[in-house]
Design brief:
alpha/beta, 6-stranded mixed beta sheet, 7 helices, Rossmann fold
């Protein structure tokens, strides 16, 4: 499957802050798959058909600002609590009351907020890897509303710097890379389309 095929299989939910792309496939117990930064639902493209075959309903959104979802310019729409609220709105729209919540990377920030808002809706948590602090989220560095943040994030939108950043991300983040050119294109393309 290439990225164009993946995008064709996505549906859209209109949140008050923008359009959210998502995959909804299969039937049975629901598994919500949340991506991290700077990825999208594309991260789970190989898992989705296997989990559907095992009898699960799979929901894999592109969070607002990622993948095929809208990327509004307002910095405040991306705070953790608002991303969590949009997950709940999507699940309400899909009429899903409870689910197994599978997440990795920075989606832990959205998940912890969601757990504060409506913990009863999550039947199980599957933590692939994420950010956990016993006293709350206090990273050594956090992007703020400033010129530095704009410059760093804009580097992903230019083809040359995107290639360098993605290449280094995979080099440092994977022990052994078996990613094909099609796989890598699916990670790069949504970042350069803006």
């Amino acid at each position: 499957m290439n990225y164009s095929n993946f995008r064709e299989s996505q549906q859209f939910f209109n949140s008050k802050d923008g359009k959210i792309a998502y995959i909804d496939q299969g039937s049975g117990p629901t598994l919500l798959l949340l991506h991290g930064i700077p990825t999208s639902g594309w991260l789970y493209r190989k898992m989705i058909p296997l989990l559907v075959k095992k009898g699960y309903r799979i929901i894999a959104p592109d969070m607002l600002g990622f993948g095929s979802s809208d990327s509004p310019k307002n910095y405040d729409v991306y705070i953790e609590k608002k991303q969590a609220q949009r997950i709940l709105e999507l699940m309400d729209f899909l009429k899903i009351k409870e689910w197994t919540h599978i997440f990795h990377d920075a989606s832990g920030l959205w998940t912890w907020e969601l757990c504060k808002l409506q913990p009863q809706r999550i039947e199980r948590l599957v933590i692939l890897n994420t950010i956990i602090y016993s006293e709350g989220f206090k990273p050594p560095m956090r992007f703020g509303k400033n010129v530095f943040t704009k410059i760093v994030m804009s580097l992903y939108t230019f083809k040359i710097t995107n290639n360098i950043l993605i290449k280094n991300l995979f080099k440092m983040g994977l022990i052994e890379s078996t990613l094909s050119k099609i796989d890598i294109e699916g990670y790069k393309k949504p970042l350069t389309r803006r």
